[in-house]
Design a protein that fits this description.
mainly alpha, 0% strand
């Protein structure tokens, strides 16, 4: 009972959101640092992974972060998820801001740890701490490439769509009136969703799909030498895109799920065949 009391309440929930998001970002930014900066120093370049390894590490980071935090907080790990659950699943609105702050602080702390651990590699590969390695910490339109021709509004569109997909599937996976995964496999399936989004929606904006995941590491990179962290490769103020886009996309995903799936689900589990309805006595 003492252990349960110590872990209960809002403080316990925020602690879990901080820790779970920190685990997510440790794997996510860590793998990008390894692939981009570490791989850039191998002979030939690219010897430490590719886009697929990035997608898998982000997805596994989500899975592990959710397993860590789920018992205490529900493991949102993402302000877009928190806001959507408040809008469509009855999560208390008064907890939205504290959750978002805890998630962002967890992402910030994790990014600082990655920045510290990869100090030498980042300095060797990109001495000026430029756009070249900014994608280790935060997203950019076209992943920082000018060749793709993606600007902030194209990236905003991408973030709306990608986060809508994420929330549609999170709502489906966690809906007890649907067919949720058994054996506590929900976090693993959600991780696979993130892997799939990374593999299919990673070109235009780097699939942030999470305001905390982008803003926390972006701030960490800014205070540790990345002077252009708030702007994209075109010089445009960009930090707002991975914040606003996922929030809008999450709400759109919530509307989509409610209209096309949730509205048609039964309000209670159907009775197994052959069993008398519980509301009526058996003959």
């Amino acid at each position: 009972m003492a252990a349960r009391a110590r872990g209960s309440g809002l403080i316990g929930e925020l602690s879990a959101e901080f820790a779970g998001t920190m685990i997510l970002i440790l794997f996510g930014t860590g793998v990008v640092a390894q692939v981009v900066a570490g791989g850039g120093l191998t002979t030939p370049p690219g010897g430490l992974g590719n886009h697929d390894s990035i997608s898998w590490a982000w997805g596994l980071g989500v899975t592990l972060g959710v397993y860590l935090a789920a018992r205490l907080s529900g493991a949102h790990l993402n302000p877009a998820v928190t806001i959507t659950l408040a809008a469509f699943r009855g999560f208390p609105w008064q907890k939205v801001a504290p959750y978002a702050v805890a998630q962002t602080l967890g992402a910030f702390a994790a990014a600082l740890l990655v920045r510290w651990n990869y100090t030498e590699v980042l300095a060797k590969f990109d001495p000026g701490h430029t756009i070249k390695t900014q994608t280790v910490f935060s997203t950019l339109p076209g992943n920082g490439s000018t060749t793709a021709g993606v600007h902030e509004w194209g990236a905003f569109r991408d973030q709306v769509i990608g986060t809508a997909i994420l929330l549609i599937l999170i709502l489906a996976i966690t809906d007890v009136l649907s067919t949720p995964p058994g054996a506590n496999l929900g976090p693993f399936i959600i991780g696979l969703v993130v892997v799939a989004i990374g593999m299919a929606w990673g070109t235009d904006a780097g699939y942030a799909i999470n305001p905390a995941r982008d803003f926390g590491p972006r701030l960490a990179s800014y205070i540790t030498g990345y002077d252009t962290a708030w702007r994209d490769q075109w010089g445009n103020l960009y930090f707002w895109v991975p914040i606003a886009g996922p929030i809008v996309g999450g709400l759109i995903g919530g509307v989509f799920y409610k209209l096309f799936v949730g509205h048609f689900l039964p309000t209670a589990e159907p009775e197994p065949p052959g069993r008398a309805p519980t509301s009526q006595p058996a003959a």
